[in-house]
Amino acid sequence: MGGCCPPMDLFRSEPMQLVQIIIPIECAHLTVSYLGDLGLLQFKDLNSEKSPFQRTYATQIKRCGEMARKLRFFNDQMIKAGLPPTKSARQVDLNVDDLEVKLGELEAELIEINANGEKLQRSYNELIEYKFVLQKAGEFFHSAESSARLQQREVESRQTGDDALDTPLLVDQESSTDPSKQVKLGFLTGLVPRGKSLAFERILFRATRGNVFLRQAVVEEPVTDPVSGEKIEKNVFAVFYSGERAKNKILKICDAFGANRYPFTEDLGKQAQTINEVTAKLSELKTTIDIGLLHRGRLLETIGEHYEQWNHLVRKEKAIHHTLNMLSLDVTKKCLVAEGWSPIFASKQIQEALQRAAFDSNSQVGAIFQVLHTKEAPPTYFRTNKFTSSFQEIVDAYGVAKYQEANPAVYTIITFPFLFAVMFGDWGHGLCLLLGTLYLIVRERKLSSQKLGDIMEMAFGGRYVILLMSIFSIYTGLIYNEFFSVPFELFGRSAYACRDLSCRDATTAGLIKVRPTYPFGLDPVWHGSRSELPFLNSLKMKMSILLGVVQMNLGIVLSYFNAKFFQNGLNIWFQFIPQLIFLNSLFGYLSVLIVMKWWTGSKVDLYHVMIYMFLSPTDELGENQLFSGQKTLQLVLLGLALVSVPWMLLPKPFLMKKQHEARHQGQSYALLENTEESLQVNSNHDPHGHEEFEFSEVFVHQLIHTIEFVLGAVSNTASYLRLWALSLAHSELSSVFYDKVLLMAWGFNNWIILIVGIIVFVCATVGVLLLMETLSAFLHALRLHWVEFQNKFYEGDGYKFYPFSFVLHDDEDE
């Protein structure tokens, strides 16, 4: 946004203002266009009671819709022709009226070219079929004629023979038959689809009771059907029949089977002449079709050069008129009144855009810009970049922040990938995720312009979230000392060594400390030892509680900053302080005990300490005492926890009632106002400001809130144990795949089994650990932020700032 804007601050949303702009009608279009280029004003719909057809600019929107339809038609034609739209270097200045005329002319020309091309192509396909019929049917008649001549020669040779007794008696009868009484056979020729030829033959036989003679010949190559335009394998047929009745039946059957009929002559001379004529026509038609396709291709190329510019102009015009329809028409019908929300820092830019629009449209009067005072809640607007936007989307998926309340996304940038990594800790798997993410980031410019699949689109959108997740996973993996479940001595040698040869079986029995403590992370000697699981369970469980208590305390502290910002002293004294005391009296104390136990190396049973803190607070701790005065401290903390519950519950509703009464005292007998003025004032007020104070509702709400926090303090702390559970599951699965697949395959000393084992190991690692476990840890980290962290301070009942912007419109259309 340039140097005009203040530095980005994600902690609170941008201060917003409700503005009113009175725009002269002659510069309204240009003004809205410039504001759309600026993209910092969200217009309010001042004509919500009107239907879309009753609004002022309904006709213009209809025109834009018609132009958009024509452009979609051009796009479909270009896709069919394999000519994608190209971005032209030269931009042609066009107004909407000229573009509408031009699009109409181009559409009419393209439709005419398509219609002529279809007619020519149909004629061409019909001639191709006719040529096949002439060739194949000519072969029928030629073979029939040659066989008839052969029979005639045989008959003549028999008649001239010496043995007159062997001559059939019917020959004389046939030869003496009257030619006028001979039956004249008719015939039909054409093509029938090969898949229907058997059924076609069967139906003909049944319909004519066998009084037809059918000949078929296979056409070797598929033929383009003139009607459907599809390539179909066909057979040429010739049907010989007797009588008009049989002919009508055959014609109906041909129509039913989609058989195309073509005329055919018996005269061999005419057949040759017809074939020559058809071949000449085919050549002429082919030339004409090629010229037509070339002309169509040139026309589509011309359209493709300007398509992007025209499409952008039409979408822009439609968006402008949609926005103009949201403006209210002045009584004099010379001005348009607009209202909308904008960030306070954008006031100067908006005024400059208004002045520029008035100057460019030669308007004698400029637009009037003024700020309105309202009790309506403004929209929430955070200025994000490509790195922070994905984290903001994670928070917004739960609920958009109330205007200027503390934004969890600031902390989510670090806490979300870190909690994910606690569950996913393996620096080998983290490296795999990092490499995949770096590929997306390096090619982000190219990938952002492509259409990706749904899953790939989500991964690409959250590439920077996955980047931090992978980096933190490498960090926690180094702490856990796991590389595909294998430990490495990366930061020095193990602090332990075998006392003698009897401890070679990877157990802690017989191990003694011979070197300084391993400098970073887990000592590799723990992996594979008998006490590995109990040790890691204890470590990760306590670590999960510590992380959970810290994050919940952060949420409560943020509620203090919210209350201070909104000047709500009641929330500070009767929500923030008792909540902080209650949580830390119990689980903050538990966290201190965990740290002290680690620090001192004590063997105190913390389960026993916490349980008997409630059941028998006055009993002596005995061997479970960590420090002197622990019993007294526990009694004080327990008392504070018990006191903080009524502290949260009782005072706040009564004080709210007192404040309400003091605020409305003496207003019962206010001076009567003018009727019109009072209606105007009431219409501008927030409806929530006139709701009556219901003490019972407020008290019940506070009771629910108190119970929810008290029970939630326990359940939320327990919920953070999922960090331990998923970390353990990930580690054990990784160990199983390594030991039971890779090492087992290695132990066979067979290259084929080893290769199969490596393939199974890679597939299991990618499918289960890098995909399913990643998704699982992601969802659990999401739940910890939405429920355990954000419910301490985040209301999330706001609504997002959607400015009128041509950039946003283009993104939505894509």
TrEMBL record:
Which membrane topology term applies here?
Multi-pass membrane protein
Q: Which residues form a coiled coil?
A: 89-123
Q: Does the keyword Coiled coil apply?
A: yes
Q: Where are the transmembrane segments?
A: 418-442, 463-480, 543-561, 573-599, 632-650, 751-772
The UniProt entry, under InterPro entries, shows:
V-ATPase_116kDa_su, V-type_ATPase_116kDa_su_euka
Q: Where is the signal peptide?
A: none
User: Chief localization class?
Assistant: membrane
* Protein's UniProt name: V-type proton ATPase subunit a
